[in-house]
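ARCHIVE CARD
Drawer: 12
Card no.: 0347
Subject: one protein chain, sequence and derived structure
Cross-reference: see card 0346
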Amino acid sequence: MGTTQLESVQEPKYWHLKTVLSEALDSDFAVGEILPNERDLAARFGVARATLRQALEQLELEGRLQRRRGVGTTVAPPRVGVAVSTDQREWAEGVGSEAWQPLDSTMAKAPAPVAAMLGTDPAEPVHVVRRIRDTQGQAVAAELLYVPASSVPDLSAIEAPSGPVRARSVLRELHRLGLQGQDRSVELGSARADDAKELDRLPGAPVLVVTTRYFTADGTAAVSVATYRADTCRLTFGDSGGLEISHDEQPERQAS
């Protein structure tokens, strides 16, 4: 039998280069070490810079490299385990789980897709709670939680109109609703400028976007759009149905 068309396709040059670079990262570079510039790397491996960029981008997606603002491309550290809870109990005290830090809460229009999930008029302002998650001193996720005013009717207008105090108040009132369910989706995306800044990434860097919709008996109570660093996070789903993020345990790489 002849070979199929798929079997006859040659491996892309950048993919082979990615394998070579991965081996070099293990033998020639230490964790956190800055890689030479693209021109020097392309010359070292005898490839075009366009081919080199494709290989570097793939290694970044796989969590082997990190592009950092004002630093350059560095060898990524071993991945850190991060558990992500979507249990409403994390809002019980209005501060979220230990790792989540509420930064702000303002009234603003929700993006059209979010407004559609909430079942609100796109022109209707909603509470937008912004939170950041740190793990071992590294920002790994940024969240925007959209909450219609109807979901938190007892929120006092006398309290701070914005800031972390207001964010805690919204979370506390949301917890009192007694949520009855949720659904979520996960997709690969590109970091927007705001998310990139908070996560110490470059705009356009790969991220994982987790969208969660929370339900009560009356309908959708809130929608969370959380952006996770794709270079450090691997998403898994536990038996309980809760979303978790775990990380491959990689041996520490040392310079030769």
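Annotation on reverse: The radius of gyration is 22 Å. The chain is about 25% helix and 30% strand.
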